[in-house]
């Protein structure tokens, strides 16, 4: 019996570089818009998180001030009763 010969594949030529199609261009535009939107939203979230921290600090300061004012008011009332 004769040995089997495997068919030799022709050398593959590099894929030809075609200009991007209209659909490809639209897809890239959409991808870029999505990336820009994501970056913008990420910045906004970061800013909101910083604002939240700043507001929490301000609330804490105001509560401490309120407690101090209540203590002063209590002392004034005690002094007035004497």
TrEMBL record:
Annotated segments matching region Disordered: 1-24
Compositionally biased tracts (Pro residues): 8-18
Name of the featured protein: Uncharacterized protein
Organism listed in the record: Tanacetum cinerariifolium (Dalmatian daisy)
Lineage of the organism: Eukaryota, Viridiplantae, Streptophyta, Embryophyta, Tracheophyta
